User: What shape does this take?
Amino acid sequence: MTADLTQTPQQTAETFYLKDYTPFGFEVESVELTFKLAPSATRVVSKICFIPKPGTPDPRFFLHGEMLKLISARIDGVDVAPTVTPEGLTCDVPQQRFVWEAEVEIDPAGNTALEGLYMSGGMYCTQCEAEGFRKITYYPDRPDVMSIFTVRIEGDEEVMLSNGNPISKSDGLAVWQDPWPKPAYLFALVAGDLVNHPDTFTTKSGRKVELNIWVRHGDEDKCAFGMEALKKSMTWDEQAYGREYDLDIFNIVAVDDFNMGAMENKGLNIFNSSCVLASPETSTDANFERIEAIIAHEYFHNWTGNRITCRDWFQLCLKEGLTVFRDSQFTSDMRSAPVKRISDVIDLRARQFPEDQGPLSHPVRPEEFQEINNFYTATVYEKGAEVIGMLKRLVGDADYSKAVDLYFERHDGQACTIEDWLKVFEDATGRDLGQFKRWYSQAGTPRLTVAESFANGTYTLTFEQSTAPTPGQPDKDPRVIPIAVGLLGANGDEIRQTQVLEMTEAKQSFTFEGLATKPVPSILREFSAPVILERETSNAERAFLLAHDTDPFNRWEAGNALAREARVAMVLEGAAPDADYLDALTKLLRDDTLDPAFRALILQPPSQSDIAQTLHERGHTPDPQKIYDAAETLAQTLAQQLADSLPRLYADTTVTEAYTPDAVSAGNRALNARILTLLTRLDGGEQAARQYETADNMTQQYSALANLMKAEKGTVQSQAFFDQWQDDRLVMDKWFALQIAMAVPEATARTAAQLTRHPLFTLKNPNRFRAVMGALAGNHAGFHHANGAGYQLLADNLIALDGLNPQTTARMCTAFQSWKRYDNDRQALIAAQLQRIQTTAGLSRDTNEMVSRILDA
Ligand code: BES
Ligand code: ZN
Assistant: This one.
């Protein structure tokens, strides 16, 4: 029996709903898989033991399966003839325990979608989350079906890995066994000619764990930093959460072609090489920090994701929101907590706020989807982490620990829901979290307005919250909002320490008594809730908070607000750069008592897209060119105002010691880079060219090159950079991106178009595609240039990629999500491109869903 069902399933508009959840009718007792590796015709033999669940037994079962060529199927040793469709198979089954055996053939070499088993740079690797396992064999590919896996790999590859512990190895064969029940999405297999960076770790209870980072030949000198990060993560999870590792071996593999950053497969994490390989010569400080965080993130999933997993994909935030929260705690502990908090908020506002306020807005726990891959979003991840931060703030640190301990104790080995998660908090604290749960079910970013009054020693803050309608949710109920507030006296002293006000009503007042004079409030300290705070206040008060607030986040926030108001006034009123703002910056820049990393953040102006969003929120139509011009004028004015001190400041902040990627020296380099950016506006790139010559690390080489390019003085260095690094893919991604990021608006699309014709450009590598198209979409004034060339170029490339890699295509469609902010001409240009994509023959379900949702705005 041979059925050829290797065509891609046709795009369907089928929508899946949370409310339709029904458990699978069978337990899976065990899974045995044998892989006979061959690039274009790998055979997968499965032997799976099913047990019908008590109750009304199902006379037949459905197994997912896509792009599989079914060779044979047997139940209890007898051939069966299932009904096969492009989505899977249905088969009559016995009413008691039975063994299903199937053999399928798959084509890893032809798999450009990078989901299931595919080849990257000559090695076999897998990506199964969310629904990729069904491209490997027929199986109930849903996270609530958990089982133990034994995997035999037959092939002549040097290294052959799977989940769990190795149980036998000989020529042409490796056998792995994972004792922990897991859903299929955590399955992984890697085979290839790899080299190993080994180490060991002893857990607090004395288990000795073999650690390996497997990479391609030539990359072995880029593993040491990742290995240190892994060991730090293992220690941190023991100390902070009491969680130990639970296998004898932990493998990490780096692959070049990967849709996401990394994946937490049990005992065998697979990483995009950009998220694990690091060396001072090829990686920037930002790369090092991200690698440390992502290694931690995937490792932390071993408990929050793997030991306790999700019942269904609507519960994705259960593992992702929590694990992002845990990895930010880790980074705060390893580096600077305030700097991490500020960076996270910058990121939240840049990625999640636009999502939440546009056509793609959805709850942290969505209730419907067509393609789950489209819901690995900033809302599920970053807002999901913010929601946990609020919960912790509301119940306090001790009760947070109690509740999380209860979660591990009660749910180990289970596939859970957000209800389970909230219940452990209710049980551990006695709180009713009914209203809090709205953070999971209601989409949209609440707006918080605040009014203040002072009389007879009593200071009153009155808050009002409201959330604009989002797709499918016209009306919103008030949420619980923890508002951390402190009060400052006129001399800058803190007269009331931080206190968390718990807002539950649409409008609510809070009073502070016994004050001699009207205080200056510092509201939403540490960004205690993911809301938009609207407060009428003066620049003088912002400058006061920037100088005196004891909460580092709000100190930064005051500077950020000053910068934003200065830019908005320039755009709307043609105002000159605000003198108070320039003075405040000048002071900060020279204030050696402040952490350099913090100073660098304050010097980092709000992004142009952030200004566009602010203008839109206030009822104006943003003009990208004007926003660009204002940014340029402000930076130029600041540079001129500082002219006398810049060379000196540059010299004083230059890091001359041998490169180390730690947070302190990275902070020093970040500040130095900000100063170089200002200096380059005055010296035409002289200092940047010198820095380029002498740099012995990528951080300084890259910042020098970026500044030279911005000044349009970088032709020689850009060529030199290319010559030096053309054989290093990850550095070449930087080279591609930088040219587009630094281009002036009118040259952005042209530069990007030229680069898509470069011999090293390829649609097949997601990193390269994102380097070019992500940089195009990220150059605000260039992408939104009135001639529409940016929109057209992105659409051309999305259409070209969709047939190869739907997942990466669909994610990149988010570049268009804020299109309703802009003027009618731009909206018409974007709509035309979106329609062109939508009507492309054979468009993937992934991209179709994204484009349709964006257009429906
Ligand atoms: N589980 C995800 C990886 C994933 C995402 C697989 C979507 C399949 C589809 C992993 O834990 C993850 O979240 N990775 C993030 C990085 C992390 C630091 C937030 C990623 O890949 O971007
Ligand atoms: Zn994750």
